[in-house]
Amino acid sequence: MEIFNTFQFLCEKLLKDGVKIPGPKYGNVEFDGFKEIPWDFKAHAINTSSHQIIVNDSEATAEFIKQFGSVGLILAGGEVEYNDDERTFQKWHEELKGGKSKYELERIKRGAWSRLRKVEFRLEQISFIRIDDEVLIKCGSFQRDFRNANGTPRQEKVLLDLEKLDEEIVYFLDFNSKQKN
Amino acid sequence: MVSYRGIKMMWSVTLVSENKLSNKNKNLIVELIDNESHKATRKYKFILHNILEGNNFSEAIIEGGECAVKNIKDVLKNNLNHMLVNGNIQYFPIFM
Fold first, then answer.
1. Which residues of A are less than 8 Å from B48 in CB distance?
2. Range list of β-strands (E), B1-96
3. Contact A114/B52, CB-based, under 8 Å?
4. Residue A142, burial from CB neighbour count under 10 angstroms (0-12, 13-18, 19+)
5. In this structure, how many other beta carbons lie within 10 angstroms of the beta carbon of residue A146?
6. Does A90 touch chain B (CB under 8 A)?
7. Can you give the CATH number for the domain in which B53 is found?
8. Are B53 and A115 within 8 A, CB to CB?
């Protein structure tokens, strides 16, 4: 999981001269950067069964689409490698954070299993995706009601289905094909 | 809940479904937790320690402030209601 934070760190480091970082805020929700429109930076494992990705808060996204016409997403796609069978990385990670708690050990004893850690991310592509109202409707993420019955915010997220996107991907870098050429 | 300066609390946020959770749904749960954890890391000195899974549950073990943990619970509840037919999401402190 920590691997994906690295892409955000790289974006913040490499784009800081051309992109305002962090981006605009709506309530407690902040976008990662701003350049003509608000942008978010994300990484996604392409070797998984699901190609749905969580972008940002629905209400904030709808508000910024209203203000700027669209919001953007810089999405790194790559193949992820998980723990080896010995779970070497996981053991190191456990040690780093002080070992498993008694509670975790008891839960595992009762049949729960610990999720595998992502240990490597091989960057294969970067997509620049434009998200507007049409995209939200297409992906079924458009929320008409952003509040619960008691007035509290619903905190629903925009869920993008990458398999449904086409012309919304405004720019695409493929590192795999560059290596092959 | 009493919190002590300098001592961070450990929490469990558990989503239990009446039905078996598919891998796709478990991945989505992790994606949501990961997304929220990432945002809270700097602000709340928040650490996602582990995600434990079973056939019908996902449980995040988290170290940090209660507000960040409550936020994760609310985000899961607001986004995953379709998985929670007769299920529930709860959070509680873990005493070590």
1. 1
2. 9-16, 47-53, 57-64, 88-94
3. yes
4. middle
5. 15
6. no
7. 3.30.70.1290
8. yes
What Cα–Cα distance (Å) separates residue B16 from each residue in A99, A115, A126, B21, B81?
25, 16, 35, 9, 11
Q: Judged by CB atoms within 8 Å, which residues 7-46 of B form the interface with A?
A: 10, 12, 23-24, 27-28, 30-32, 34-35, 37-39, 41
* Tens-digit pLDDT string for chain B (96 aa): 444 455 568 899 999 998 888 888 888 888 888 888 776 666 666 788 889 999 999 999 988 888 888 888 888 888 887 777 678 899 999 876
Nearest-angstrom CA–CA distance, B15 and B29: 9
Nearest CB partner across the interface for B34, out of A1, A112, A114: A1
pTM: predicted TM-score of the whole model, two decimal places: 0.78
- Assess B82–A contact: CB distance below 8 Å, yes or no: no
- Count of structural domains within chain B: 1
A37: its two tokens: 């429109």
Question: pLDDT tens digits, residue range A119-173?
Answer: 778 889 999 999 999 888 887 665 556 666 676 767 788 888 888 888 888 888 8
DSSP state of A3: H
Label the pairing between strands A37-45 and A157-161: unpaired
CA distances (Å), origin B14, targets A65, A70, A156: 34, 35, 19
ipTM above 0.85, yes or no: no
The Cα–Cα gap between A142 and A66 comes to 13
Token pair of B33, please?
A: 């937790």
Asked if B31's CB is within 8 angstroms of A54's CB, the reply is yes
Domain that holds residue B80: 3-94
Place of tokens 């299993």: A113
Q: Which CA distances in Å does B82 have to A120, A148, A151, B21, B25?
A: 32, 16, 21, 11, 10
